[in-house]
Amino acid sequence: MALIRCQQGHFYDPSRHNACPYCGSMPAGGMGATEAQPPPMGPPPIGMPSPVGATRPMRDTPPPIIGPTVPIRPAGSPLVGEKKSPEEGRTVAVDMKKVGIDPVVGWLVCTKGPSRGRDYRIRSGRNGIGRSDAMDVKISGDDTVSRENHAFLVYEPRKRIFSIRPGDGRGLVYLNGEEVIQASDIKGYDVIELGETKLMFVPLCGEKFHWDQERDEPAEKP
């Protein structure tokens, strides 16, 4: 590509422009001027405009702000300045009643009747047996069972013994085939009969286990 210089010293391509595209003047030697050499590197002479458009200084870019390096805290370790609780790491006994847990002490399992195969949880104290939703042991589908309190299965936590007692209604209750007239002790795998339903008793608490023994054990030292 042959470049020529205009009267103002600008270089341009005559095959693309008839006059200087920078200032509009004609070639320095008129039409048919000889080919000029590319402009020298460096600033133009004093008083002569630069053939290259004016440059704009780069905007000062502030350096990125880098905060202090924060080490990753291992899981379970205290924060800086945080004091470790003296109770941390010590096994503490849990009072189940305070946290809303009423622990199971045994079960009744239906072996005969409409609810055959179903199990019922027994809690400490008096457990009412009947068809009502309000009963602790709800027997469904057997209309020969009283709606409420056909019988009571009781766990006495101080002596750790179970007993069966007759209810408030007219329905009879049997223990191993014998009518229950007053409170009678009941042992593992004894059978309670109410109407057309038979319930086998399966204890959890007793001489070998009770919930208080877990609470009475001394807490583990740190």
Report on the architecture of this protein:
With 222 residues, the chain is mostly beta strands. Among the domains are: 39 residues, no CATH class; 100 residues, Tumour Suppressor Smad4, CATH 2.60.200. Helix content is 3%, strand content 25%. The strands form three sheets. It has a six-stranded antiparallel β-sheet with strand order 4-3-13-12-9-10, with no helix packed on it. The chain has a five-stranded mixed β-sheet with strand order 6-5-7-8-11, with no helix packed on it. β9 and β10 form a beta hairpin. It starts with a strand and ends in a 6-residue tail after the last helix.
Using the coordinates shown, work out and report the CATH topology of the domain at 104-203: Tumour Suppressor Smad4
Mean pLDDT: 79
Query: Would you tell me the structural class of the helices and strands?
Result: mainly beta
Strand order of the largest sheet: 4-3-13-12-9-10
DSSP strand tally:
13
SSE string, helices as H and strands as E: EEEEEEEEEEEEEH
What summary fits the major beta sheet?
6 strands, antiparallel
Low-confidence stretches: none
Q: Tell me the overall shape.
A: rod-shaped
Q: How big is the Rg?
A: 50 Å
How many H/I helices? 1
For the record, give the distance between the C-alpha atoms at the N and C termini, rounded to a whole number.
90 Å
DSSP helix fraction: under 10%
| CATH C-level name of the domain at 104-203 | Mainly Beta
CATH architecture of the domain at 104-203: Sandwich
Strand coverage percent: 25-35%
